[in-house]
């Protein structure tokens, strides 16, 4: 029987740093963590009483920035200064991506009617939008979704970038399954259909990322689906004919 191969340095760095970053993100980067500090009140004091209406929004904006730092910048630093490799080898790649957009557009076209159907379920209407006041539209909606987009950038950069490409040289296509496990777990607490669909999404987005050598379009797809979900839920609550007036 062949001996189990020893772990290489690259894999050890990826495993250890990924676990640490997952724990730090869970305990220090979520909206509620920021809202329990004194910072929201301080920011409102700096900006004036008109900013008080956005106090809760600050927690979600913090979440987006924390995702950018912990899931994009920190992995990039580790890639460059610890692993001594190029970020492009981990999916941080823009060049040549226009030719890869077609399967993502097909996936979005498939997901829009699916989102329309499931947005009628009570579990999704109770969950989305994550920021309750997004239904007020204006900066409540867009101030949330711009930073929500940063959160998805961090998510894709971490799971379909750092973790997937970091383990691929060692595990091959099995790296998709390894990446998918913690990815599905971060959906715990969301509606069951969404958590189950994350299994499929994890595999599909992982496969497409490896094929395109980038997580770019996966980020845009994920964010677009989330935006569509919030619009659908708000439309069902207030009428689709009122969406434009609500959001703008």
Keywords:
248 residues; mainly alpha
Task: Provide a concise account of the structure shown.
The protein has 11 helices and no strands. It is mainly α and 248 residues long.
Molecular structure report:
There is one protein chain. This protein has 248 residues and is an all-alpha fold. It has helices at 9-28, 31-35, 39-47, 55-82, 102-118, 122-127, 139-171, 174-185, 192-212, 216-238, 243-247. It has one domain (9-247). The protein contains eleven helices and no strands. The longest helix is centred in the middle third of the chain and has 33 residues, at 139-171.
Low-confidence stretches: none
Largest sheet: none
Helix amount = over 70%
The CA-CA distance between the termini, in Å, is 66 Å
Q: Which class best fits the helix and strand makeup? A: mainly alpha
Order of helices and strands: HHHHHHHHHHH
**Gyration radius over CA:** 19 Å
Strand residues, percent: under 5%
The best one-word shape is globular
């Amino acid at each position: 029987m062949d001996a189990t191969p020893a772990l290489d340095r690259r894999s050890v760095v990826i495993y250890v740093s990924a676990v640490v970053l997952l724990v730090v993100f869970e305990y220090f980067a979520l909206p509620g963590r920021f809202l329990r500090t004194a910072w929201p009140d301080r920011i409102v004091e700096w900006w004036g009483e008109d900013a008080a209406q956005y106090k809760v929004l600050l927690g979600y904006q913090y979440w987006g920035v924390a995702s950018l730092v912990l899931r994009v910048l920190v992995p990039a630093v580790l890639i460059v200064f610890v692993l001594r490799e190029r970020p492009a080898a981990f999916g941080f790649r823009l060049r040549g991506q226009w030719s890869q957009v077609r399967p993502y557009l097909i996936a979005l076209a498939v997901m829009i009617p699916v989102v329309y159907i499931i947005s009628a379920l009570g579990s999704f209407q109770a969950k989305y939008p994550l920021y309750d006041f997004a239904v007020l539209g204006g900066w409540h909606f867009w101030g949330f979704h711009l930073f929500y987009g940063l959160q998805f950038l961090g998510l894709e950069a971490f799971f379909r970038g750092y973790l997937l490409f970091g383990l691929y040289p060692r595990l091959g296509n099995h790296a998709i399954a390894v990446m998918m496990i913690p990815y599905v777990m971060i959906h715990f607490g969301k509606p069951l259909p969404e958590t189950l669909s994350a299994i499929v999404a994890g595999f599909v987005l992982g496969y497409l990322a490896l094929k395109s050598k980038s997580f770019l379009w996966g980020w845009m797809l994920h964010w677009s689906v989330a935006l569509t979900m919030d619009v659908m839920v708000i439309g069902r609550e207030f009428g689709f004919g009122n969406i434009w007036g609500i959001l703008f």
